[in-house]
Amino acid sequence: MWASLDSGTTSNQPGSRANPFGNGPDPYGAPANNPYASPAIYGAHHVSRESARNKLLGPVIGVLIMTFLGLGYLAITFIVQINEIDILMAQNQVNTPTQRAAFLFGFYGFYSVFLFFGLITIASMIRAFWVRSYGLVMTGFVLGMLPCSSFCFCIGGMPFAIWGIVMMLDESVKSAFRLP
Predict the structure, then answer these.
(1) Nearest Cα residue to 107 out of 85, 83, 88
(2) How many CB atoms lie within 10 A of CB 17?
(3) Residue 64 buriedness (CB in 10 A; 0-12 / 13-18 / 19+)
(4) What three-state secondary structure class fits 133?
(5) Rounded to the nearest 5 degrees, what angle is found at the Cα of 169, between the Cα atoms of 143 and 138?
(6) How far apart are CA 116 and CA 24, in angstroms?
(7) Which CA distances in Å does 149 have to 16, 86, 121, 137, 145?
(8) Which residues touch 134 (CB under 8 Å, ≥6 apart)?
(9) Which pLDDT tens digit goes with each residue over 2-57?
């Protein structure tokens, strides 16, 4: 079939050319209903803070438990090592005031870093419970896998943190974080 450029009608004449910019339907466009499309793309999922909270509750509790266990272990080792520091100071193992200052700076700095990351993880899990601050919650789940927040209990927290990251990548959970 041949189309006329002037009238936009179809003609069977061999000398006329087809109009490529006609007003007909786009043969390459997306179909109106795709039965194989993901429901997340077309908004068929239910978006609410409560449903997102229910999806995140298991990973949040697991990461919180492992973080509290790690901080408890950290507190116990801190108390034990404070007593050892007193013994070292009494035996003059650390002689000069500069050595003492460097030793104590490193000692307290080490524990401060673990405490800082543990507190960030706890704060982010609280925000996850309230379904607020997507970036902070994602950071908390990543920190839940690292030894800097839960010390040696990161191995136990790793499955919960991975579970939490997978739930955070779900479209319904993402959109719940965007709710006002």
Answers:
(1) 85
(2) 9
(3) buried
(4) coil
(5) 25
(6) 63
(7) 75, 27, 7, 14, 8
(8) 168, 174, 177, 178
(9) 554 555 455 555 555 666 666 666 666 665 676 676 655 444 456 789 999 999 99
